[in-house]
Amino acid sequence: MSDPINLISQWFANLLLSWGLAEGLVKVISSAIGAAIVATLGLVTVIALIWVERKIAGRLQDRLGPNRAGPFGLLQPFADIIKIFTKEITTPNGADKVAFNIAPVLAMASVLLIWAVIPFAATVVGTNINVGVLYIVAVGSFGIVAVLMAGWSSNNKFALLGAFRAVAQMVSYEIPMVIALLVPVLLARSMGMNDIVAAQTPWFIVIAPLAALIFLITSMAEVGRAPFDLIEAESEIVAGFHTEYSGMGFGMFYVSEFLHVWTVGALMATFFFGGWSGPGAENLPILGIVYFYIKTFIGYFLVTWIRLSLPRIRIDQLLAFNWKFLTPLALVILIATAIVDKALEIAGVERWGYALIMLAVNLFIGWVTILILKAVEPRRKRQRVEFAPRPVAVAPKTPDS
């Protein structure tokens, strides 16, 4: 019984067929139940992540974190759930009720739909389509539409300003993120998620570390986590695009953000850390799921660590960092990877030699980037000094003045 998950699935399908149901209807029912299980698993994971993130924040910021509701504060997320469920759901005057109420659902769906193509193990995947990467980029864009709908339909200038910031940030950072995702697609010769996992010998984090770094940074900007949390920026625009939401409306945005961070960890694990692969994972899917969740948690912890350690940057710094640095760097990495990959393929270099050469190329690009930044920074400092406003001389006050 090395694959209990598929054995249970096959048993259930045979049971429905024995009841006289058509084969097509059985596939639909099985797919619906599988989707419900994945969605439920994601939502249950969020309950644990809320507690974990608060405990991590307490450790990193030298405070206690949740420690009153239940042992070690374990019941605190459930207290939050009860509070959200019992709060009144309000709709502001003049709001577009249809768009206002659809936006939280769309935000949640944009994250849950990504999990439909993520392989948990060699034989445990919702849908193994051959354009999985394109699918992820497409459904991830629903989140941008949800944010824009929430801000526009709220009839609130602060929410609308937050939505404008979100569109400027999320659309901008999608460009280097997609370019970075083309690197594992190029290396695996496929857009299929399971194909990308199977091609990672060694892991792509060794072959393309700069692409992994760019994907991590741009994914954090997509989620809107510090230092890229200008989407909300509570101290400046109240709470951003979801200012007018209460009860479960706010709760769905809140849960989708936590689940999105966990999804970033899952995508990092899939694209750059071998996904479910590991010793014995091909013959034992349960072990592959364990490997996948361990790698996902490492990515989640890294995003949380950065969020709790860095301050927010300004909107002009955020956009300049994307257009003047990340996007050109991502293009250079993609072009260099394509050229070197083809040259090594023609030369017939073996896999580990191939990996070491690709790693050297990435290190060289990183070194050149650092040299360019060091050369540009003094010039920027001089410009800031030259254009700095000069202090105005003020005559000293006398006793008669």
Strand order of the largest sheet: 1-2
Distance between the termini: 95 Å
Specify the overall morphology: globular
Radius of gyration: 25 Å
Helix count? Answer: 15
In short:
The protein is mostly helical and 401 residues long. The chain has helices at 4-18, 23-60, 76-86, 97-112, 132-140, 142-153, 157-188, 193-198, 204-207, 209-223, 234-237, 247-272, 285-307, 315-347, 351-386; strands at 119-121, 124-125. It folds into two domains: 8-86, no CATH class; 98-377, no CATH class.
Structure, described:
With 401 residues, the protein is an all-alpha fold. It has two domains: 8-86, no CATH class; 98-377, no CATH class. Helix content is 70%, strand content 1%. It has helices at residues 4-18, 23-60, 76-86, 97-112, 132-140, 142-153, 157-188, 193-198, 204-207, 209-223, 234-237, 247-272, 285-307, 315-347, 351-386, and strands at residues 119-121, 124-125. Strand 1 (119-121) and strand 2 (124-125) form a beta hairpin. The chain is globular and about 100 Å long. The mean pLDDT is 86.
